[in-house]
Amino acid sequence: MFSFLQPVKSISTKELADLSEKNSRIIDVRTPQEYRAGHIKQALNVPLAKIDTYRGKKEEVVYVICQSGMRSKQAAKQLKKNGYEVINVRGGMNQWSGKKVGGR
To answer: In sequence order, what DSSP letters do the residues of the chain get, joined into one string?
Structure first.
């Protein structure tokens, strides 16, 4: 069975907001500048260009978010290829209505 050939699962920002209280591992793949402008509190900033440097627990589900959902989809595919259980967040920070840290 070739799991890397299966599409990456995705959820909405609303579904992520419901989960984010449960200490989920969220990776924000936007640039450091975008991240500083406002991000989800527990999100870890790992820009898309450096996604291969991510070393999290393989048994932990990883939620990937960006600004609109395009970069996170690419990052999710790469993380899945690297053996992580990944879920892409559709709509990205553009759709996020929950609390943000940083920014103005």
So the answer is: --GGGSPPEEE-HHHHHHHGGG--EEEE-S-HHHHHT-B-TT-EE--GGGGGG----TTSEEEEE-SSSHHHHHHHHHHHHTT-EEEEETTHHHH--S--BS--
CATH ID of 14-95, from 3.40.50.300, 3.30.1370.20, 3.40.250.10, 3.90.700.10:
3.40.250.10
Among left, alpha and beta (phi > 0; psi -120 to 50; other), residue 103 is left
DSSP state at residue 5: G
**pLDDT tens digits for range 76-103:** 999 999 999 999 999 999 999 988 998 6
The β-bridge relationship of strands 85-89 and 61-65 is parallel
Mean pLDDT over 15-31 rounds to 86
